[in-house]
Design brief:
By secondary structure, the chain is an all-alpha fold. It has a domain of 26 residues. It is 87% helix and 0% strand. The protein has 1 helix and no strands. The radius of gyration is 30 Å and the shape is rod-shaped.
């Protein structure tokens, strides 16, 4: 009887510890993932803006045409 009760207590303790660790790891992972996504999106936006600026400058520059 003592072994059964002790086994149930140990199983319950291990279940609680796994569940509590799992939730904390997900929160940290979610925050880290969100931060990484925002940083990556910011970099891509900056690159796109630079590309657009260079395209606009290239189209605004007067093209050299031979005088007729």
């Amino acid at each position: 009887m003592k072994k059964v009760i002790l086994s149930l207590v140990l199983v319950a303790a291990m279940s609680v510890s796994f569940v509590s660790c799992k939730e904390k790891a997900e929160e940290v992972t979610t925050e880290e993932t969100a931060t990484e996504v925002v940083e990556e999106a910011t970099e891509q936006i900056e690159e796109a803006v630079q590309e657009i600026d260079s395209t606009v400058q290239a189209t605004e520059a007067p093209a050299e045409t031979p005088a007729q």
